[in-house]
Amino acid sequence: MRVELRDVTVRNIISGITLDACDEVVGIVGPNGSGKSTTLRCVYRALEPDAGVVLLDGADVHKRHGVARSLSALTQESQVEFDFTVAEVVEMGRLPHDRDPARDARVVARALDAADVTHLAARSFLSLSGGERQRVLIARAIAQEPRVLVLDEPTNHLDIRHQLDVLALTRGLGVTVLTVLHDLNLAASYCDRLYVLDEGRVVASGTPREVLVPELVAEVFHVTAHVVAHPTTGVPQLLFDQEVTP
Amino acid sequence: MISKISALVGVLVVSVVAGVALGPVSVPFGVTLDLLRAALTGGTVPADLAGQYHIVWDIRLPRVLLAAVVGAGLSAVGVAIQAMVRNALADPYVLGISSGASVGATAVATLGVLSGLGIYALSVGAFLTGLGATALVYITARTSRGLTPLRLVLTGTALAYGFSAVAMLLVFQAPHGEAARAAMFWLLGSLGGANWQSLPVATAVTLAGIVYLAAKARPLNAMAMGDETATTLGLRVTRFRTHLFIVTAAMTGVLVAVSGAVGFVGLMLPHLTRMVVGADHRKVLALAPLAGASFLVWVDVAARMLAAPEELPLGVITAALGVPCFIFLMRRRSYVFGGR
């Protein structure tokens, strides 16, 4: 499924963001405050842009019916105070769909398994560690059976194994994935294409190899980077100097 | 789950019969059952039981049923409001309804406003100012982005202080002590005015409200996870919160009008229920109203009996029973509403 942003502007935060993704993994990278999360919030409808439009297969997400049956999201929201069990949280992913208890149970079980949280199913969500919670929320997003998956820093709080697991898992779903990532090397390894945001604008886009060059990294992130090829996969990886470029 | 519901329905039926039998003048259980059966099936009552029949059917039963309705309604509203504003301290009165209603009730009791309505003056006065206060909270809290939880709670709390000040002023300015006492009694909750006429409206509104809320249990779960998450799950959060606001305000307004501001039930029963079955609103909204109904029936029995022939205000007893019970459960179980 195709997701497309056209000239999306949110006053004082992002201006004229244009990007698209279709049945591929597209990453959004950029320094703190560059507007990454705001861009995603426009996609998953937490924000209505002041100008521009977000299209899902050509239809405006704010007008189209049943968006939640096609698009699910992992947000940065973390203010849960209610003591739901893990199974209950994941089951919420079935809310947009018509009730079908047998099928719902199968989908939830698969999602729990995919996110490696089946053993936590009966536990209280609030009793989990940050990484476990993150995986449960990913399971909920999967249980929604999306065709577009929007992820705001999915690797937050995760140990390295689960970072790699989660990215491989979302990639393996074969749906359109639009994800904000902090770690440029993970972004280079897992994304088909990247958009680089700086001060609310898209400053570069393309494959990781095209985008992650030392000049751009210096200009946007103000650090000196060397690009090396990953010894087994050949993907570009960045090594950073200690000093910060002025 | 079905077994828990049946158990609570059983407890409620037993509580209602016990509530009818018990009082300053106790009627033996067997006699109570015979009289209830006679009343329901149109049977005849022996002449020597006419006095007890009057107590059971005309005085006790409507009162006990109203206690059950008020307890069920306040518990359901408490559950919904806590999810709607995502706040563990929220209760049915957090949006200013009871303090608004107290202005009308004290005005009726102390100034004789609406005296043309006779015994209904207090209920009507309370209902009108309660809904007025709610409307004021709604208008004040509303922004272009709809109702946000924190603004709702802050606005409701702030305005409640204002309404309470007006009510207290009226109490202190009361021309004679009896009027002030009547006003205070109302503020703490009482079912002393219950009769068959006050039941149908309160019952219909409460049942309709509970059915609506129970039907919205899954959206309430989503809302409890946060507005953004609920949006991604397809919920139209602003619209849903406005609907919840209207439903809970109507329920609370009617309940306050018939029983005064019975405190603590709407705060405590939702938490007690969650301690037992967890946070899933499909379970909480099935069980909390049943538990709340039985709870308030027994509270009212205590209100009638503890200081007989005087009556105690319900709020005094809900607090006296509820606080220790609540603290005990809170300390015993690992209950984590509000995070760790």
TrEMBL record, chain A:
Domain ABC transporter, first and last residues per copy: 3-224
Gene3D superfamilies: P-loop containing nucleotide triphosphate hydrolases
Nucleotide-binding listed as a keyword: yes
Alphabetical list of CDD domains matching this protein: ABC_Iron-Siderophores_B12_Hemin
Cross-referenced PANTHER family: ABC TRANSPORTER ATP-BINDING PROTEIN (PTHR42794:SF2), HEMIN IMPORT ATP-BINDING PROTEIN HMUV (PTHR42794)
Protein name in UniProt: Iron complex transport system ATP-binding protein
SUPFAM superfamilies: P-loop containing nucleoside triphosphate hydrolases
InterPro entries: AAA+_ATPase (IPR003593), ABC_transporter-like_ATP-bd (IPR003439), ABC_transporter-like_CS (IPR017871), P-loop_NTPase (IPR027417)
One MF annotation (Gene Ontology) recorded for this entry: ATP binding
Keywords annotated in UniProt: ATP-binding, Nucleotide-binding, Transport
TrEMBL record, chain B:
Top-level taxon of the source organism: Bacteria
Transmembrane parts of this sequence: 7-27, 64-81, 93-113, 119-140, 152-174, 194-215, 244-272, 312-330
Coiled-coil features, chain-numbered ranges: none
Keyword Transmembrane helix applies: yes
A GO term from the CC aspect: plasma membrane
Species of origin: Lentzea jiangxiensis
An individual GO BP term: siderophore-iron import into cell
A Pfam cross-reference name: FecCD
InterPro entries named among the record's database cross-references: ABC_BtuC-like (IPR037294), ABC_transptr_permease_BtuC (IPR000522)
Membership in a protein family: Belongs to the binding-protein-dependent transport system permease family. FecCD subfamily.
Keywords: Cell membrane, Membrane, Transmembrane, Transmembrane helix, Transport
Membrane-protein topology: Multi-pass membrane protein
Name this polypeptide is given: Iron complex transport system permease protein
GO MF, one annotated term: transmembrane transporter activity
Intracellular or extracellular location(s): Cell membrane
